Amino acid sequence: MSLKQHDFLADSFLLDHYVGHTPLVRLQRMAQHTQATVLAKLEGNNPAGSVKDRPAYNMIMQAERRGEIRPGDTLIEATSGNTGIALAMVAAMRGYKMTLIMPDNMSQERKDAMRAYGATLIEVTKAEGMEGARDLALKMQQQGQGVVLNQFGNPDNVEAHYLSTGPEIWQQTAGKITHFVSSMGTTGTIMGVSKYLKEQNPDIQIVGLQPEDGASIAGIRRWPEAYLPTIFERRRVDQIIDIPQIEAERTMRRLAQQEGICAGTSSGGAVWASLQIAQQQPDAVIVCIICDRGDRYLSTGLFSVQDPVEGS
Q1: Any known ligand binding at 188?
Q2: Which residue positions does N6-(pyridoxal phosphate)lysine occur at (predicted)?
Q3: Is 186 labeled as ligand-binding?
Q4: Is residue 77 within 8 Å of residue 87, measured between CB atoms?
Q5: 99 marked among binding-site residues
Q6: Long-range pairs of 31-34 with CB within 8 A, sequence gap ≥ 24
Q7: What integer pLDDT is reported at residue 311 of this predicted model?
Q8: Per residue, what are the HEC states of 189-252?
Q9: What does the pLDDT look like over 145-176, one tens digit per residue?
């Protein structure tokens, strides 16, 4: 066996055994007033701590195998945090330089994690937002400063979830899943999982989540039409639910305090939506994505808020 073949097998081993294969757990206390089964897929158990480990690894490895990039090159990506951290991890592992562009209002933990993996971080203003970060990434690529992987338009993003997340959910539920619930940012997760699950059972309902007008929920977006990810196919989503920011944050805290699952606000939104469905569909088997870990949000103070007691 050649050294190159050995490296390929080592890479495949990493993908098969360390990225993905995350646990699926049943919510016990939060869903106890419903007859439905609500299951949470804990993507924070990935090596760099989020669901974005899957597409980050696949985008870099597939581009490398196609000869589009090679170790030593500079990669550029606009990110709100999790994809950037995951890309920085894989870039460090494979020997790439990583430049990440993100809005300056993202949590300090996210910024620190990117830099810990050796990435260069460029911040745009909150007003410029992710749209401004994406524009700057493309401008830098045009100026020859690096290669943009473009998670918003890269089929390898979708493929990562078609090949791993979807099959895992199908197997872990023994094919009994009736609803899949996912926050939508790049939309790679929901596109890939929807494609796989609908091939197994077209009746499975795919539910996408976006912030309601005026809400700001880290990791998910309500994109202007001009910036809608090109990998997004509306036909693959059966229902879109608008998530109130206050409910996402309250549910995030309840998830930690009542289920022992410490996660971010987009995960709170996913659980809130899943509980709404559970109330309406008593026979449902609902799987929602817990995108990341809550330790990335501690500095925001969101976990320090005292919520009113229910019923008071």
Answers
A1: yes
A2: 52
A3: yes
A4: yes
A5: no
A6: 31/275, 31/278, 34/275, 34/278, 34/279, 34/282
A7: 45
A8: HHHHHHHHHHHHCCCCEEEEEEECCCCCCCCCCCCCHHHCCCCCCHHHCCEEEEECHHHHHHHH
A9: 999 999 999 999 999 999 999 999 999 999 99
Where do the DSSP E strands lie in 79-217?
Answer: 97-103, 120-124, 147-148, 179-183, 205-211
- DSSP 3-state assignment of 312? coil
- The answer on whether 2 is annotated among ligand-binding residues is no
Q: Which residue has the tokens 């030593």?
A: 72
Instruction: Tell me the pLDDT tens digit for each residue of 21-59.
Output: 999 999 999 999 999 999 999 999 999 999 999 999 999
**Who wins on pLDDT, 2 or 160?**
160
Residue 183 bears catalytic tag: no
- From the number of C-beta atoms within 10 Å of its C-beta (0-12, 13-18, 19+), residue 97 rates as middle
Report whether pLDDT(9) > 50: no
| Residue 193 contacts residue 187 (beta carbons within 8 Å) | no
Q: Is 189 annotated as a binding residue?
A: yes
SS3 127: coil
Query: What domains does the chain contain, in order, with CATH numbers?
Result: 11-45+164-300 (3.40.50.1100), 52-148 (3.40.50.1100)
Is there a contact between 288 and 208 (Cβ–Cβ < 8 Å)? Answer: no
Tell me: is residue 49 an annotated ligand-binding position. Answer: no
Of 182, 194, 266, 267, which one is the catalytic site residue? 266
pTM of the model: 0.90
Catalytic residue among 41, 50, 52, 164: 52
Q: Which helix (H) or strand (E) holds 25?
A: strand 24-26
Q: What band does 281 get if pLDDT is binned at 50, 70 and 90?
A: very high
Q: Which amino acid is at 58?
A: N
52 is catalytic: yes
Angle at which helices 82-94 and 53-65 cross, to 10°? 40
Burial of 225: CB neighbours in 10 Å, binned 0-12, 13-18, 19+: exposed
12 pLDDT band (50/70/90 cuts)? very low
